[in-house]
Amino acid sequence: MKLPTSRPLAAFARFLLTMLVLALAIWAGWMLWMHYEVEPWTRDGRVKANVVQVAPDVSGLVMNVAVHDNQDVKAGELLFEIDRARYQLAYDQAQAVVRADIAAQDQALRDVKRNRSLGKLVAAETLEQSRMHLQQAQAALAQAKVQLASAELNLTRSRVYAVTDGRITNLSLRVGDYVTVGKPVLALIDSASFYVEGYFEEGKLGNIHLNDPAAVTLMGSSAIIRGHVQSIALGIADRDRSIGSDLLPNVNPVFNWIRLAQRVPVRIAIDKKDAQTTLVAGQTATVSIEQSDTDRP
Question: Which residues form the p-hydroxybenzoic acid efflux pump subunit AaeA-like beta-barrel domain (predicted)?
Answer without folding.
Answer: 193-289
